[in-house]
């Protein structure tokens, strides 16, 4: 028997703590062969030791090999010391076994009068005092000169080398806590009174301490912290025969509520809207009355040793808060510091989740457990792909061969209800995306359940014990296929990968955790590193239900009236469940909605449907016709309906003709009015069959022969039954943006008196594509008649027959505008203009009716045209009175009406009176100015 071993105890509150003395060398200082310790003729000593712990029976070790002056026996004795013992006394006595006489005593103490080496171990700090002042070393006796306790016979001195464990710096399990701290607690001021206890610490099992606080309404559900601690307790980590890790989630206190808090390196202004406001306080004050910080317990903050307690916890405790929401992160599940050297701060932010989101994650408690374990894993140096053997965080997400809650595929149970709440326990085969063997089993035996991977961005499942169709394209299978198997944006955008040549390694998580976070760059207060997106409640909804999408395109994004537009609707399901009772509704911009029942849509599946509608001719140019598609199905929660509808726009192109009319604002009777008619196609499509018609009112005369405008001349001039005149132009097709101007002149009759108005109206008719017709566009312009003061010297018809010089073209044009009966009087064809020959023919020898009256009428209009008299000039004669004529205009109109009647006996008197009335006017005797 070389030593005595004491079995380890479970990680509970310790009532005792082990203390071990190991003697690893004993040797003679004074001569001890044939003299001294051994008598004459005797050989070297046969060493053994008697070890005494105060309060315990002494222990005699086995004998070392016989006849040795120095031995290395490796004697051990472990005692479990009650934790109420502050100082433990230990004695070591070295003996020499003699078979023929009593055993001899070696002097191992430097103190006179003592043979046994005596030590005292402080059971709070692990310090050693007495004959040896360190936890390991050698002590030799003084040989008791003068006999001492051995009487007159001095005893030879021996040296004993020993080790006391645990020593004051021992950390048996390597978790960063000294053994004495784990057994007793921490005494900061050296008064042997523990100031801080580590609950349930175990010096032989790694311990992790995490303080958990929560906002009002966000306290962890019952059993959540215990469930996560249980995961660590069952971890496949064996250290000195103890399995698991002691995770101590200390449920502490409720914090002030905030709708959202920020967890970034930029501390936000204001109180309690930032992680560091809650942890460090606003203003930062950790201890004493008025403390504002929440890291540490209320008892810690009130403790006189608060500053030292806080420093200790800051070096050893991680800190997590269950919050309502994370600033700028919507319904994200949480966030933690992520670094190769781990981190110490994290949040669980599930307060904004609703029942549908929690249901998809297996319930609120399950969601809290998974998120807490996930975020805590980040602070332990794990990325979404775990951790490389070289200690670098693996950030490749959604790896099919990495079955851990750190992987978004398995963080929640939504994709695999049977997935364990755990980190990856053992590594699996590395997958090379550009060298995947679809003909053999992939070596993923540690998996339970199914392998989940991506094909075309969508989730695909396979049996891990069978060959896997990584490409998803079926047979023939390839021994060197290439596939982007961790590209699964249906899970989360962080699972989007553009590479198909990644090396997807799968290392065990539990063997690679980082316990000491003080080497992390995020250990400093206020330093949290870049924001790392996490799984959101919307991701869970999408994975746990159907998530239908609708997209729509039209074959005509530009169209005209009468065009047929075909809409193609693509319906898809990007969720994790099939959609049933799927209905697609298409609503065209004109007409009623069209509804179609679709077959069930599987995850990742899409289908297309086509619909048509006809653009109405009434659709205005530049307007947008919107086609809408909407898809519904089950099960799909309200939170994912935002992309269930889609629209497509068709811009309408139609002609749009505008016309304007400008006219001379005022003219004297008989003078030319200039009309400018402008038209333009302000639409974006050509106008077809355009026809411009200008209508001149009665009393306004037009002839192409007298037209002084720039043109173009009308293609048709029609005198209507109501004495209006229609002028027509036919521009035909008018391109978009094109237009033209028509300028012409027309003359008002000399019978128009001052103040009278005439209005010219333009009407532009046109059509478009596919036989569409549009309402004509119109415009008008008004001219007011003015009057020239008369010259009062009218001429007789006989005089006008001689005065060719006074019969100017302008004078004759005014006459033509007033009465067209003289045009063609010389036997020529009437051409719309009055010539000298035609005037002379009318005035030549007017001896019989109706020639006489015609000649006098012509003379009267010539006198009006030369402004000697006006239509409004008053007339007073017996004849005028008898005929009821008050003005020259009345007389002219009466004459025109007379000439419309046959000159027979029945009208002889009328012709005679009318001729006399006009002769009196032309002779100047009828006018009264």
Automatic annotation (TrEMBL):
> Which BP terms from GO are recorded?
carbohydrate metabolic process
- Residue limits of the DUF11 domain? 658-763
Report the GO molecular function annotations.
Answer: metallopeptidase activity
Which NCBIfam families does the UniProt record give?
Answer: B_ant_repeat (TIGR01451)
What protein name is recorded for this chain? Putative repeat protein (TIGR01451 family)
Q: Please tell me the species this chain comes from.
A: Nonomuraea jabiensis
């Amino acid at each position: 028997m070389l030593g005595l071993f004491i079995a380890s105890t479970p990680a509970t509150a310790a009532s005792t703590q082990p203390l071990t003395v190991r003697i690893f060398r004993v040797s003679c200082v004074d001569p001890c062969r044939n003299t001294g310790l051994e008598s004459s003729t005797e050989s070297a000593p046969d060493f053994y030791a008697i070890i005494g712990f105060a309060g315990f029976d002494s222990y005699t070790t086995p004998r070392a090999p016989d006849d040795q002056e120095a031995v290395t026996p490796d004697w051990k004795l472990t005692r479990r010391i009650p934790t109420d013992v502050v100082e433990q006394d230990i004695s070591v006595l070295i003996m020499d076994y003699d078979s023929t006489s009593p055993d001899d005593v070696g002097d191992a103490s430097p103190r006179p009068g003592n043979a046994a080496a005596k030590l005292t171990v402080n059971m709070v700090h692990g310090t050693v005092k007495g004959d040896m002042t360190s936890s390991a070393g050698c002590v030799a006796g003084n040989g008791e000169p003068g006999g001492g306790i051995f009487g007159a016979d001095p005893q030879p001195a021996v040296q004993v080398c020993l080790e006391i464990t645990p020593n004051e710096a021992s950390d048996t399990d390597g978790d960063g806590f000294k053994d004495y701290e784990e057994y007793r607690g921490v005494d900061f001021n050296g008064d042997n009174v523990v100031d801080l206890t580590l609950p349930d610490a175990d010096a032989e099992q790694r311990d992790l301490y995490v303080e958990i606080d929560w906002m009002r309404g966000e306290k962890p559900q019952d059993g959540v912290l215990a469930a996560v601690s249980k995961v660590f307790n069952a971890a496949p980590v064996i250290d000195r025969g103890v399995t698991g890790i002691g995770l101590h989630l200390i449920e502490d206190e409720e914090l002030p509520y905030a709708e959202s808090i920020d967890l970034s390196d930029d501390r936000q202004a204001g109180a309690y809207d930032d992680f560091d406001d809650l942890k460090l306080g606003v203003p930062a004050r950790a201890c004493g009355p008025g403390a504002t910080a929440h890291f540490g317990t209320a008892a810690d903050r009130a403790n006189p040793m608060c500053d030292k307690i806080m420093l200790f916890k800051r070096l050893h405790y991680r800190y997590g808060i269950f919050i309502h929401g994370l600033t700028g992160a919507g319904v994200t599940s949480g966030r933690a510091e992520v670094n190769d050297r781990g981190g110490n701060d994290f949040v669980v932010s599930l307060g904004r989740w609703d029942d549908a989101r929690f249901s998809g994650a297996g319930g609120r408690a399950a969601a809290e457990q998974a998120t807490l374990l996930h975020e805590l894993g980040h602070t332990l140096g794990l990325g979404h792909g775990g951790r490389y053997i070289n200690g670098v965080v693996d950030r490749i997400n959604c790896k099919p061969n990495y079955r851990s809650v750190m992987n978004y595929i398995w963080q929640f149970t939504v994709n695999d209800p049977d997935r364990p709440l755990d980190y990856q326990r053992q590594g699996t085969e590395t997958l090379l995306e550009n060298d995947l063997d679809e003909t053999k089993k992939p070596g993923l035996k540690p998996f339970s359940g199914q392998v989940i991977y991506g094909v075309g961005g969508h989730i695909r499942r396979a049996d891990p014990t069978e060959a896997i169709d990584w490409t998803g394209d079926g047979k023939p299978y390839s021994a060197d296929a290439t596939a982007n198997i961790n590209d699964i944006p249906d899970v989360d955008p962080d699972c989007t990968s553009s590479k198909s040549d990644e090396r997807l390694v799968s290392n065990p998580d539990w063997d690679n955790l980082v316990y000491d976070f003080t080497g992390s760059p995020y250990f400093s207060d206020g330093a949290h590193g870049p924001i790392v997106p996490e799984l959101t409640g919307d991701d869970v909804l999408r994975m746990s239900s159907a998530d239908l999408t609708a997209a729509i395109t039209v074959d005509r994004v530009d169209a005209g009236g009468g065009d047929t537009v075909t809409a193609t609707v693509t319906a898809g399901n990007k969720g994790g469940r099939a959609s049933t009772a799927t209905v697609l509704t298409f609503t065209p911009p004109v007409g009623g909605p069209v509804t179609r029942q679709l077959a069930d849509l599987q995850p990742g599946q899409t289908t297309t449907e086509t619909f048509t509608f006809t653009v109405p001719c009434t659709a205005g140019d530049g307007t947008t016709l919107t086609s809408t598609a909407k898809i519904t199905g089950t099960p799909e929660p309200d939170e994912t309906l935002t992309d269930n509808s889609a629209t497509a726009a068709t811009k309408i192109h139609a002609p749009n003709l505008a016309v304007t009319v400008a006219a001379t604002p005022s003219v004297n009777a008989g003078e030319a009015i200039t009309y400018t008619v402008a038209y333009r196609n302000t639409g974006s499509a050509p106008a077809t069959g355009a026809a411009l018609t200008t209508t001149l009112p009665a009393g306004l005369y037009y002839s192409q022969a007298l037209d002084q405008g720039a043109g173009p001349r009308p293609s048709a001039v029609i005198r209507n039954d109501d004495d209006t005149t229609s002028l027509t132009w036919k521009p035909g097709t008018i391109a978009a943006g094109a237009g033209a101007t028509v300028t012409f002149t027309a003359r008002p009759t000399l019978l128009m008196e001052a103040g009278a108005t005439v209005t010219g109206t333009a009407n532009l008719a046109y059509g478009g594509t596919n036989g569409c017709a549009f309402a004509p566009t119109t415009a008008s312009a008004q001219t007011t008649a003015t009057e020239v003061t008369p010259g009062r010297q009218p001429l007789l018809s006989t005089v006008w027959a001689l005065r060719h010089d006074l019969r100017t073209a302008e004078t004759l044009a005014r006459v033509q505008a007033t009465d067209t009966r003289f045009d063609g009087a010389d036997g020529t064809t009437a051409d719309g203009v009055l010539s000298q020959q035609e005037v002379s023919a009318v005035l030549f020898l007017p001896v019989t009716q109706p020639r006489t009256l015609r000649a006098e009428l012509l003379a009267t209009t010539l006198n009006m045209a030369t402004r000697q008299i006006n239509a409004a000039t008053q007339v007073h004669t017996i004849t005028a009175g008898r005929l009821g004529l008050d003005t020259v205009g009345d007389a002219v109109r009466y004459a025109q009406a007379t000439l419309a009647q046959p000159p027979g006996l029945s009208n002889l008197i009328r012709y005679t009176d009318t001729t006399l009335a006009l002769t009196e006017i032309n002779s100047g005797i009828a006018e009264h100015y």
